[in-house]
Amino acid sequence: MNLISGTVLILTTAEKVLGAGFLAAENLIFTCAHILPQENNVQVKFLVDGSIQPAYIRLRTKSPTHDFAVLHIEKIPTKAKILPISRLARVKSEYSYPYFRGNGVIEARAPGELAANIGTQQIFQLKSQQKNIHLLSGAPVIDLNQNAVAGFVSIPTGTAMEPEKQDGTRNVYVISFPTEVLQGKFPPAVAGDKSEIIVINNQPGGGDIIGGQTTNPEPDETVFEDNYLQEDLPDWLKQISDLDIDNVKTVVENEKEASWEDWPKPAIDIHQDFFEETEPDYPERSPIAPESDEFNEMPDWLPELSEPNSSEPAEFILEESAMPPTLAKPTEKRVLNTNFASAQDQRLLMRNEALYPGNTYDLLVDVGLPWDRDTSLLGKQAYFPEDSETPYLRKEDREKGWFDLDAVFVSQEFQPSLVSGRIRVPLNPLTRSTPYIAGEIASQPGPLKLRLKAPNESASKRAHGRLSLYYGAQVLQSAILNVGVSTNATLDEENYGEVDYVLTSNYQRLGNLSSRQRTSTGRDERVKVSILMNDDLSGSHRILLKGDDEKNQSASLPPAWKAYDTQIIGDMLEEARRVLSNPSGRSLDFESDTFLLDKFKEDLIALAKLGANLYNILLQGITPAENVPPMLWRQRFRKALHPGDIIQLARAGSVPSTHVIPWTLIYDHPLEPDRSDLPLKICRVVEEQWDADFLKRKQPYRDQDISVCPYEGEHEPNTVCPFGFWGYRYTLEQPISALLNQAWDVEPARNILITNPVKMAVAATTDIPRQSRYKQHFQSIQDSVNAEYIPNIPATERDQVRDSLRDPQLVYILCHGGKDGKLTYLNIGPRGKDALHTITPDLPGVWGEHDYIDLDKWHATRPLVFINGCYTTDLLPDLTLNFVSAFRDLMAGGVIGTEIPVAVEYGYLAAEKFFERLGRGEDVGQAILGMRWDLLNQGSLLGLAYTPYAMADLRFERQPSQPAASSTEL
Q1: Could you tell me if residue 215 is inside a domain?
Q2: Residue 694 pLDDT greater than 90, yes or no
Q3: Residue 489, in any domain of the structure
Q4: Average per-residue pLDDT in the chain?
């Protein structure tokens, strides 16, 4: 027998060796119970090929005399083999077991011999002939005469391994497992003729015990549970009943008689000989009167076997990890489960059952296998997306074996309008989340309960809400819930929910997403605050804010929400467009050499007043969770943010593309523009560092943090300073993968795979002044990123653009924007609306569908797209978002665009500075922030018009032969 082919190492999620085990049946690993952690988070490593995969602790014993456990795995490696199992031989035999050395890698098999039996079949001792061995609990022991596994090594916790003898050998305790259990591929074990078989099926949400076995007529404790055996148990019970065992009875839901024909056939074949009543012929010997001089005293931890002639069966207690309320098979994926339950009896509502007006309910939330009977409002397709093959979690979470998520429910119809709680999700994809109760982790898995009061309406109505899951400050998954409220119990329209926002398709990468590896600092930086624009089909729109404090999770900024007026937001965006349409600096004909510091100051004041008003509109009247007073929450919010922090911006639900908030313009220094006694004044950093004649920055920072004003301590109310704008102080990211519904098809890109030279698709309008500057612009970009342009000269016609987009690594479009009725478009080549020179948002999808675009290459490369809309008042916010969505569907890594038209000269400068920084190795977030400062140093605020729809740390992934240039200061 090839022992290696079926032997595994049992590992923690951080790949620390816990012990060993072996493949005993299809997808089942047997090992020792005492080596397993309390939490259901382990992995197995097959020695035959070194592959590692998660394992679910399906069953484990509570008694050291039956120190074994069963792990479930999703698949068996091709080279792995199931090891056959045999009874313990009646006579002395020769045995073999794995021999581990160093890092736990198997090197040889160490033979041994049977020294003595202890009691019955449970324990025997093996005298090792191998010197200086390192044994692992759970390692299979092979009977070489029968060429099959007879038991496995067991050295329970708290028991010292027998010391080595002078010759380096030692005796090893080996458990001979109940062969019947293994041969039956783990049906309920028959402990004795006083066994009682019980079948119970509780209501969903309260937990389910599918099988139970006890050794007492009226048990106080269930000793066998396995929810996965739902389909197999009836057949086993029927066969066990035929064995004429006393006190066998069944209890089924609603006290109906069981009809075995109505149950599905077993999914696992049962060996017929499992139920044969056979008595093994054990040698007649006593543990207190050994026949061999080599026999050892029986250890203290075997009290159950001290009287082998007793008529009472040995204690045989097994526990199965609690997984309420699912009965799903382990092959199913975890999902986000949620539904309302009565606060009185915790009964889950059926899909067509109304919430009674004014009654109290618990919104149950968990992450795990799908609830049975389709009781979750989100059904079985609301996948909690993960991929067990690629555990990218950050080190601390992998070592812990779990991560915490915050569940937040917001509604303008339920009371309270915002509730939140925390759940712990094991890394193992076959397990279920555990809730926190009053700040403490619960003792067993189960749903989180969010207490709510239904709308108190006399007439029937639909009530709406949004449920979101957060990892730190980031919203990872969000769903709308739509339920009926009525005095009539039965609804015409069923309750339902829908997941409409997913950040990533792989929750095993959560830790990787929790921070951004910044090129500016070389450190991992967490997302500090997220702001989610959302709706819930109730007709209202709102923002949902949540912060994170990595040093103290309990002190994290609690979530808060605020409804916003779309008309007010639209008016403010138009005002920003007006101010920036005539920026300080060059006049619009670009012929003047005069720079006006006074105009620059006027622009600063106008935008600061606008940004301060926007800040107040978004936060005034905000509703925090946890009964935090609004003003106290605003104080915490301001203190939580520090220069350089990352703010994540996202959109969920049916928020129209016309709803665009100019986040970069938000100004959070205190302004009171109407105070006559305290007029607005410009911070002296502008007076000192911008030249009065040329408006260029005289003293760009080199040795100081550019995100902090050197005169921050002097700021008093009504001080206008460039450092007060979010766009100059924070990194603002909008992940492209979360812009559309069901975004789990696309991962947030962190790298743009490039070659040398970089393949760059380019297209441009020809309706611009100064052709020499136009040529200089494209040459500058080509040099910055070492690009090969496709085509050689920027495309000016639609078909040229189509062909250039086949498999680029970068895309740059210098264009005008326009809108014809409801149709938005980009204009390249000569100015006009003819089809030859316009690109509409639907075209990239059409080209991809008809194979003009190599989607596999886009998926592998994750190109970055830069849409530079210049010198036009027709570039509307919905145009940019429409094209962001179009390129997102092609699996672009990111899209950069503007919600505000930019004068051509500054559009040139913005793109040149951005690609210069990207080419020398900066990530997108740093390159955009640096570009804004580059333009500000030139006396222009137009850098605030550019928005990256990408992860903040998206960057080039270069070939080893192509090093990045060193970064320079702003």
Answers
A1: no
A2: no
A3: yes
A4: 71
